[in-house]
Amino acid sequence: MYARKGYELVKDLANGEKGQLQPFNEDLFNQVVDQCTQHYLELQALIRKMQEESVDVRETRNSDHYGALIHHLSLIRNKRCLMAYVHNRAEVIQNFAWKVGLELLELPEEIQEKLSPSEKNYFGKHSSALQSYMAEVGIDLNVDMVPPKDPYIKVRVLDDMGEGILLSDKTANLARHSMHFLKRTDAEQYIARGLMEELTG
Amino acid sequence: MATEESASVMDDYEMLISTTDVALLKRAWRNEKAAPEILQFESSLVQRIKEQIELAEQNEEIFEANNIEPLTVSLYQMDLDRTQFLLRSYLRVRLQKIEKYLFYVLKTDEYLNRLSKQEQMFARRCTDDLGSHLDETVLAKLPDNYRSILKQSITSEEDDMVPAPRLDTFVICKAKQYLSGLDFEPEYSMEITEMERDLLTFVCYKFVKKPLENGKIDLV
Fold first, then answer.
1. Which of B161, B163, B174, B178 is nearest to B208 (CA)?
2. For chain B, first and last CA: distance in Å?
3. Which residues between 156 and 215 in chain B have a beta carbon less than 8 angstroms from any beta carbon of chain A?
4. Where would I find the GINS subunit domain in this sequence (chain A) (predicted)?
5. Nearest-CA distance from B152 to chain A in Å?
């Protein structure tokens, strides 16, 4: 059946958990692209056939015309599936810039592995667009993601982060498993990257 | 001297909390969060809020220098934090909407004009980036006639590949005053005729678009 592969590609996307990425399905993706080329060849062949039979390509409604139409529509459907696949992934990638970090290297390796080269490139460009917006308005936007209750929170360090890390009001020695009382805006970025956890209660 | 100075600081503070800019920002932020499309950027309000935040930050330093009670400072800090959160969240919600409807915003003048200058720059840059990403990954591999990013193929007459905000989603709103039929778009006169003041209403967004733009209702 025509355009089934495209449907599978989109389904691949829909099956994944919301906001998370599956590895870029290159294999299936390329199959859909190949199908597009195939549809186009057959479409052209049918039109050529009509021309050779010297019937009016625009006006005639014979079996060849409808055959060509089916190929045209299948191609469009495939295109929509491909675009939806890439576009929806791009939306998830945009979200990484908000939720995880603005630098590609800040993204955990598990995420990086799932991106195609063009997606990595896109992430970088998109982040720098965001950064220049923030520089332009002079406000950091990727802190303060949840409404504040207390300006200070208690956190535990989950990973070795090195000594003398510069925070807005002090430098701290953030050794693994140590607990600190930090400004929420300072701690948020580390919590997002899984380097700290907030202690509640 | 010290008491005089702290008195003037407290005056500034009184002035700060009695202005309604924070309340206005809260309203703009709520509306922006609930509306499916991007609304007019509140440029002068954002400017004023930014100045107030700066002032509050200076005051905080003065507090510290003057050994004011830590509790007062902490409360002051909390208030400041809340305002900053509102501002950041407001700007963030807008950027996220721009990201979502990128191509639509950029080709619709009405929307483009609602953005701040910086947001416009951001939108243009993003469109280029996303455009070239889509080109590289998908479009360049398709037959010539099917390479448009806005159209399905060259036979399409309209841009039929562009995700647009859905204006027929439902929103919850509250009128600030009694609204009569004249406050709504005439084309929806069959659907909506009036709205009581302060009554929570669950309604299709496009019906209340006009009174929202005129500041007569708030989204919740």
1. B174
2. 47
3. 161, 163
4. 49-137
5. 6
Instruction: Give yes or no: residues B124 and B200 share one domain.
Output: no
CA of B109 vs chain A CAs: smallest distance (Å): 21
Residues B23 and B43 in one domain: yes
Chain B contact set for A76 (CB, 8 A): 146, 152-153
Chain A hits for B129, CB-CB cut-off 8 Å, are 122, 125-126, 129
Full residue range of the structural domain in which residue B143 is found = 102-165
Q: Distance from B173 to chain A by nearest Cα, in Å?
A: 22
Of the residues B88, B115, B126, B149, the best mutation for testing chain A's interface (the one with the most A CB atoms within 10 Å of its CB) is B88
Helix axes A63-99, B117-137, angle to 10 degrees: 130
Q: Does B75 touch chain A (CB under 8 A)?
A: no
Q: Output the six-digit token pair for B107.
A: 């080709």
User: Comparing C-alpha atoms, which of A128, A120, A81 is closest to residue B133?
Assistant: A120
Query: Distance from B14 to chain A by nearest Cα, in Å?
Result: 21
Q: Looking at the structure, do residues B90 and B10 belong to the same domain, yes or no?
A: yes
How far is it, in rounded angstroms, from Cα A90 to Cα B47?
Answer: 32
CATH of the domain at B53: 1.20.58.1030
Rounded Cα distance, A62 and A83, in Å: 32
Whether the model pTM is above 0.95:
no
Of A73, A86, A85, A87, residue with least CA distance to A36: A73
CATH number for the domain spanning B189: value is 3.40.5
Residues B112 and B199 in one domain: no
Pick left, alpha or beta for residue B45 (phi over 0 → left; psi -120 to 50 → alpha; otherwise beta): alpha
For residue B112, the one-letter residue type is: L
Q: Is residue A151 less than 8 Å (CB to CB) from chain B?
A: yes
In this structure, which topology does domain A4-137 adopt according to CATH?
Methane Monooxygenase Hydroxylase; Chain G, domain 1 (1.20.58)
Q: Which residue carries 């929103």 as its tokens? A: B171
Per-residue pLDDT tens, chain A, 201 aa: give them. Answer: 777 888 889 988 888 887 788 899 999 999 999 999 999 999 999 988 888 887 777 777 888 888 889 999 999 999 999 999 999 999 999 988 888 777 777 778 888 888 999 999 999 999 999 999 999 888 888 777 777 777 678 888 888 776 666 676 667 777 888 888 887 777 877 887 788 888 876
